[in-house]
Design a protein that fits this description.
- There is one protein chain.
- The chain is rod-shaped, with a radius of gyration of 37 Å.
- The protein contains 16 helices and five strands.
- Helices cover 60% and strands 7% of the residues.
- The chain has 375 residues and is an alpha/beta fold.
- Strands 2-1-3-4-5 form a five-stranded parallel β-sheet, sandwiched between helices.
Length: 375
Amino acid sequence: MSNTARSRILFVDDESEITAILSDLFEGQYECATAGSAEEALERIRQSDFELVVSDITMPGLSGLEMIPHVRSIAPNTVVVMISGVQTVESAIGALRLGAFDYVMKPFDLRQVEAVVKRALDHQELIVAKQNYEDHLEELVEQRTAELDKTLNSLENAYRSTLKALTAALETRDQETHGHSERVVTYSLRLGREYGLEKPHMKALEFGSLLHDIGKIGVPDMILRKPAKLTEDEWVLMRQHPAHGQQILRGIAFLEGASRVVAQHHEKWDGSGYPLGLSGEEIDVCARIFSVADAFDAMTSDRVYRKGKPYEAAALELDEWAGKQFDPKVVEAFHRVPKEDWAELHARSLVKHADGDDIARVIEMIEAQFEAVVH
């Protein structure tokens, strides 16, 4: 507040003559109020805002020095100037250490008091300006942070939509597992929450589950759609799809965690999986969680050659392979999820369809990406 905006000053002294002189001196320039004790002054400060408090040190009851911390607590932006008849350096230093802006000796020269009051009010303006700037800066940072979060969320949703369209396009090559990626994402995220994954891992799990079979773009249709049992040579080609998928996603920063799921989703807890034969906790935790969700979906989903197993049979099979194919702790987390939750997740799982032109465009894009990677 500038001086011309009628700053408010509180004069505090147990001698009413002193407060009267000071009030008369400044009444034309500022709004002046008086108090005869520190206690009365603190009560007035609680009730009204003052830019400046000019107080005697020695008063009955609470002294002026003892009053300073209370003023700073009640009104942090209020400036305090002390007046005292004790003309010692120690008393002045004591006042300044407690937070007083300045110190005036009695008997005082009124011109000196005017100069001190002006400096004090100028200082108070700077305090308020600094506080306003900090408040505005904090508000601006919060606003910009909210805008950035909104933009990032929008971008992430755009990524998610693109990846879902990509997955839908890939699944047109394998109608038998149509909708599998959507379901396994839902199952994986529920299992990940139960296991206790933190947010960054949850995103890696989501995108990794969605894209786990992206490497199959490199598997010929004659193998991928073969109705009969694959030969050993054909299995060699099929087992390359995790590595192909990892190569396709290489260099995409926001899919770094997802690429580990893509690369390791066929690894097994006992080391008998592929392509690297990793075992135990060498396998990425998201890949271990996905493996259980993926197996559960595969067992409970209908196929043209068999009907899906009921929940109880699938759960027993997960137990049978815990410690061999699956991480036992992930299987334990699976059992902590109520049976009804799995049924509800399956019912809510929606299959997203892209139109023919979109599918053709996306397939063309990922085939070009695959060709660039493998060659």
